[in-house]
Amino acid sequence: MAYWLLKSEPTVYSLADLQRDGETLWDGVRNYQARNYLQAMQIDDQAFFYHSNTQPPGAVGLMQVVATQVVDPTQFRVDSPYFDAKATEEHPRWWTVKLKFLECFPQMVTLDQLKQTFTDTELAVVRRGNRLSVMPVPDPVAQQILSMAQVRA
DNA sequence: GCCAACGTTGGC
DNA sequence: GCCAACGTTGGC
Known about the structure:
The protein has 4 helices and 6 strands, in the order βαβαβββαβα. The chain is α+β, with helices and mostly antiparallel strands. A 6-stranded mixed beta sheet has the order 2-5-4-3-1-6. β3 and β4 form a beta hairpin. The longest helix has 10 residues, at about 140-150. It is globular. The protein binds a DNA duplex through loops.
């Protein structure tokens, strides 16, 4: 079982939204490196929900992968901001995963805490200027984040 | 609101 | 295929 970190701006889609919905399709990712990570995800992998563009930013909860290799439907919708004219039903360009809510951390693990604890090779999100919205988290790093969040690992 | 980082686009 | 211009992300 692997761990990941997924960013979302809470004004767009927050952990509270996921808690309400139960599960969600993580659609709209339009970056090839992020897509490749999404394609590498396996059922039962877990992902940290990271709130970006907030004060403070940080990891706020945990999700679980419940469906993999899902074709992102927004690429075909002309009225969607994620529409991609080069994608066809026969040859889609963008895949994603479905995630379910697992838990909301008793306390947020802030970016500041993450920066104090990990190097940018251990955890890419702490690298200055990093814009990648989907990234792997090595298992020992994930265990440590869980303990910082006061969640039993 | 500013701007660093960096991916994408398009002219050549 | 190079690279300047541009657009976006996201911390500060």
